[in-house]
């Protein structure tokens, strides 16, 4: 067990060290070894529990051949959907501006959608090069998308964003 000076956060049997390495606090007997946790995002305290539940220890795992296919197709899928996302952001800003004329202020969805689009644009070169930064910005976009879907009560959109978040943690270590 690491000393209290080295321990940053302890959650559900894992310890995040100052160097963002994840170590099990008590190894379980007969458990398969998951890859050691390495924080790719700026918030390892949030990433570690997500990694634990959506990554290597997830109850449903994506087969290795499908992981490689997903990593190859992800940037191209992002490129295909980006113009539609851009048009949707413009539409949301237009509708929000019209709604503000009659006293309804609904800028939250438009701002969250614009932030998601910005993260997708920033992530795109890194997704093609398979860098950690590209993966991190894709995860930021999905996390912002989840918050936006919760605000808009979009169950289908929420489900889609959560599946993409799960897929991104399944392929996390394909990005270096």
Write up what this structure looks like.
The protein is α+β, with helices and mostly antiparallel strands. It has two domains: 7-54, no CATH class; 64-174. The protein is 62% helix and 9% strand. The protein has five helices and four strands, in the order ββββααααα. The chain has helices at 44-54, 64-101, 107-129, 132-152, 155-170, and strands at residues 7-11, 14-17, 21-24, 37-38. The protein has a four-stranded antiparallel sheet, covered by helices on one side. The longest helix has 38 residues, at 64-101. The chain is elongated and about 55 Å long. It starts with 6 loop residues before the first strand and ends in a 6-residue tail after the last helix.
Brief description of this entry?
This protein has about 180 residues and is of the alpha+beta class. Helices cover about 60% and strands about 10% of the residues. It folds into 2 domains: about 5-55, no CATH class; about 65-175.
| Portion in strands | 5-15%
Secondary structure: number of strands: 4
Strand order across the largest sheet: 1-2-3-4
Which structural class should the secondary elements be placed in? alpha+beta
- The value of Rg in angstroms is 19 Å
Number of domain modules = 2
> Roughly how much helix do the residues carry, as a percent range?
55-70%
Unreliable residue stretches? 1-13, 24-28
Largest sheet: 4 strands, antiparallel
State the main characteristics:
alpha+beta, four-stranded antiparallel beta sheet, 62% helix, disordered N terminus
